[in-house]
Records
---
Amino acid sequence: MENIIEMRNITKVFPGIIANDDITLELRKGEIHALLGENGAGKSTLMSVLFGLYQPTSGKIIVKGKEVKMSSPNTANDLGIGMVHQHFKLVGVFSALENIILGVETVQNGFLKMNEAREKIIGLSEKYGLMVDIDEKIDNMTVGMQQRVEILKMLYRDNDVLIFDEPTAVLTPQEIEELIKIIRRLAEEGKSILFISHKLNEIKEVSDRCSVLRKGKYIGTVDTDSVTVEELSEMMVGRSISLHVEKTAAKPKDVVLSVKNLTVMPQTGKKEKVKNVSFDVRAGEIVCIAGIDNNGQQELVFALTGMLPSKGDITLNGEVMTDKSIRYRNTHGISHIPEDRHKHGLVLDFNISQNMILQTYFEKDFIKNGFLKFSDITKFSDKAIEDFDVRSAKGSTNIVRNMSGGNQQKVILAREIIRDHNLLIAVQPTRGLDVGAIEFVHKQLVKERDEGKAVLLVSLELDEVMEVSDRILVMHDGEIMANVRPENVTVQKLGLYMSGAEREEAV
Amino acid sequence: MKKNLSENSPVFGVLASVMSIISGLAVGLIIMLIFNPEMAFTAFGMLLKGGFSNGLKSMGQVFHYIAPYAMCGLSVAFSFQTGVFNIGVAGQFTVGGMVAVLIGGMALGIPDPIRWIVAILLAGLAGVIWGMIPGLMKAFLNCNEVIACIMMNYISIYFSNWVIQTYFYDPTLVASKYVKSTSLLPRMGMDKLFPGSSASSAVFIALLFCIIIYILLYRTGFGYELRASGFNKDAAYYAGINEKRNIILVMLIAGFIAGVGGGMLFLSSQTKNFLVSEIAIVETSYGIPIALLALNNPIGVFCASFLLAWLTVGGTMVQSAGFPTETVETITAVIIYFSAFSLIFTQIIRKWHFKKDEQRKEEK
Ligand SMILES: Nc1ncnc2c1ncn2[C@@H]1O[C@H](COP(=O)(O)OP(=O)(O)OP(=O)(O)O)[C@@H](O)[C@H]1O
Ligand SMILES: [Mg+2]
């Protein structure tokens, strides 16, 4: 089969780091080609080079047999290359239609020719099964639908090489299935697809071939059918990784967090998102909140951490917290790994060490007479970086914005786990992490538990729920449908609870 | 070999500011050429000569102007860094000036040696009150601080006019009476160094303010907290930082800086009186542009103020070449507009830098 894209000997150097080191990648026409590698291996950088966002330090790009200079995303677009970024680039107040035609509007007598565009888009969405309400504003859409808008945007521009940077990291399991169908459909129609993912099962399921990067270097390309998941992970990190979590039976002790009749209203809107919920979390156990996205998990976590007001009782270590401030809860035992790392978890323009002290800068370890103790802060941050294997070009002084997504997540993990606490609330803590890092995080959660901390894990991924938790609370429409142990329940049964079709008697 | 710069190196920021200034000057020259081609180059030379135009006096005037410019710019830059938009510098500066004129003129029984200090502190206090009102409204009523500040600016003008007209007015001047010579800021030898100018210790006080604010922002826990809020409000909220308290404190400090700036301007020379007019004090209009030009860095604010003070002094000379004063105002306005574009310049320079990099590699 012919190669539609060839990236030859691509090297991209950032100050202090070689993000891509002599990488050669070939994309065949009509194939689904996965790109695999640890956090910070250089996947996003390589794709940004192909899309014209970064200029390679050396190497060349050949599109359809011709060497080209990819000077900007516009050039890439003219050559039929489109990209869906991990953080979407849509205008929130515009409709889907307006976003799709943005930049390529056709104008007649000074008026936009909307009708033709509309017809073309509707045609495309039917052809590929991309269900989108094209007159809805982006802000009112789910993440999954926004992603479909991004895909339509590429198709509308007649792109035939489609790059997806971690498209499934932000999706719910249901949406992932949808997306995989769509991607298959696209490939059948002759589009060539580059697909970044950390989920090996997904890669096995959708891709024809898979290229592996490790620490900026090209390791190899394999036919996906001819390798096992274990072999893939070994290529990626150089050792085999088990996604099975080794742990002993939990030995729950005293109640750390006790929630009674908790009711929470959303930030906007009038409908209760958490409805009269009660549960306990004990020291030495991992309790997992399972459920389909947007069934009140976020509001529940915000109420526990003080980020949203609530009615009912939240008791931590015997002290009523319901009306306490975020700062008070932070300093009295709660650590919180937030769901949205860019919005809440990090100050992207601060460096790593500044982000490490986000909730503790006022403590005596870091401040004296009002002045920050920079050398102590750096020492603290250097150690955290080492303990949690956070990779960046400049260590503690690296601006967080210039780090790979997975390593940004590790900064938050390190901060929240190191911080003094006895309840760890972790929301989707492994989102965007490579398998090695996921293994590491799961181990950390178990270690926390074994050290006598209470862990409340919110996860959308059933595999994670079943592997890590000691007890599962299933949430549906703001209510707890079931309180079960993983060994006493099947994935199918969980699915029924999650969709609200069944409810456990005792709850 | 040239050093390889990282994508967000501060060098790009400095270069961008310099580019804004050069572009502004170039457009200024074109305007002058259109007005009066024969005299244009002479006049442009005069403008650039600035502090060197008229011996030491001009240099002294440059130092004189730096103080109010820097205080206004600092007040804005400080608030911008923390995510609050203090557009109310004009109002805070005006009430500060008014209070200083009253105390400096009427003495009110305050003994000579400490009168200027008391006057300036009370001017700062007036600025604090003026700044806190929008701060409190923002924190407790969620009122947009920009709109509240603009209203406070108008109120400051009419309120100050009324106070001056009631207590310390000279109808023939349509302005306040002159302040007592014993109320002026210490000159600290600036009058000896730069005879005939209005230069005083104000410039040193302004520099001190810039340094203190720099340390506050970059070295203290409080500054860390403020900058975190400025960069990412949601993360600051998550971290438990008390945004309401900080908005009020920021407006309080910004108001104090502007108020002291106003007080110092009116106590720096005996010929400066408080005009009863419906137009804001001109010095205050430089606050936002200086902050932009300085990319909100307190030390940058002092440098940008020096530059604008230089052009202000040069500008007064241009009249002698037959150009109306408005030309100078136009040129400064153009520079200001370009400084607003400094972000775009930063991008252009960055692109250009990396392109050059590539070309060099291709040549190899
Ligand atoms: N703009 C930048 N400036 C400096 N260094 C950068 C920049 N972007 C990325 N890097 C560095 O380059 C390396 C590769 O980053 P990249 O984002 O390509 O990783 P990745 O493979 O996509 O990882 P992840 O799976 O975590 O998203 C990282 O070490 C990162 O810190
Ligand atoms: Mg990435």
---
Amino acid sequence: MIGGSAGSFQVVASILGSLPKNYELPIFLCLHRLKHVRTGFVEVLSLKSAIPVIEPYDKEPIKPGRAYLAPANYHMYIELGNKFALSTEAPLNHSRPSIDLSFVTAAQVYRNKLVGIILSGANKDGAYGLKKVAEYGGTTIVQDPNTCEVRTMTEAALQMGNVNHIFSIDKIASFVANLKAI
Amino acid sequence: MTIEDIDIQYFVTALKNSSGYDFSEYSEKSLKRRLAKVLMDNKMELNQLVTEIKKNVSFAEKVVKEITVNTTELFRDPFIWQMLRYKVLPTLQDNKIINIWHAGCSTGQEVYSMMILLNELGMLEKARIFGTDINSDVLDIARKGIYKYRFNIGYLDNFDKVIKENPYNYEKFNDIPYSKYFEIDKVKDFMRMHPFLTEKPTYKKHDLVRDENIFFNKFDIILCRNVIIYFNYNLQNRVFNLFSNSLYQGGFLLLGMHETILGPMSASFDKKENIYIKK
Ligand SMILES: C[S@@+](CC[C@H](N)C(=O)[O-])C[C@H]1O[C@@H](n2cnc3c(N)ncnc32)[C@H](O)[C@@H]1O
């Protein structure tokens, strides 16, 4: 699961672009979007991605080999039984989707099988969620703040502690591409 | 207490026994998250909350109101309202009566959006509009039609897109003033819907989990938007069944942007873009 905000779009694009076509895992993207670029986001990411990029419907079953993008203006939860659940609850820390909420629910479901990644961003959303990923035994990665367009989000995540890897963009991309289903 | 370690079962059972409300088929993650918030807002531990629920039905009622999510907007998802305006409502032009049910209408912005559209199309007179929700407080707000200007200012853009602009013909622009439908007072920070709109709908408390169609008629249009995301798959199916039985053949069901009929009930509907049509 990848969380990002300002300055993360290019990073996400290069991660999705370097995946093998027969990728075995689902990827979850929880990205803050500017108000005026609500539409067209999926289309642009799809062009760069090696696997299909989808904004999931509520209760849609999660399938491997897809990248799921949290829909604009909804929180995206992972439910037991491998399904999504959406919510229009008020923004949390000014964010909807909230990276924290997505991460916490995914951590509870996937536990040590979850890899949580925080990318460039201008607020602190995601730091709490990443800590929870670690507590449930998952792997945590933060983009090297020196490679971030905006470093606030990665620095907040690092301050929470429990981060396994600090990676450059290329390192993140190859790490994700080499993950296998267990 | 955070959403991870909440014992949802304990709470759900207590609530059901004391008040009859049944949240056992709500989406778990979001219910947990709301319960965590209710505990925080009431400065209570789960045990205390449950004890209070058991001995005090009106407290249980209050918890139900706090636990449900009531966020809403005027013309939420303008694209859907444009479809309604140009594709759906015109097909009902010749009806003598048009019955419309807003299930889970919250504070009424969706209901007002519909009435404004109908009025623009000259169809408001013959429409009969019903708004329901599990939460009687939001229905009281809907009846009054008075909203904080501050919270709704952003949604005036939606109004412009749906009412002023024509997505199928950019040269057509209707400069319809907001004052045709509501009064805005920036200093006192409110917007108030005009009486011809507030007086029109019938609002009733209705629980989609337990209640059948409480109206003595079928519907041409049912809107149930951003409500079933809080329900699990089984409950969603039951609700779709209720809607299917409550719609005329050819009637329209409108769900939220990211809601869809996944189960067996999808066979009862045709789907055109985002709109379901009862077979
Ligand atoms: C997020 S609001 C949606 C408002 C509006 N339809 C919209 O899309 O903007 C969800 C509403 O569903 C209501 N609701 C939740 N559970 C319900 C139930 N079992 N029966 C009826 N309404 C329910 C809540 O009280 C809340 O007002």
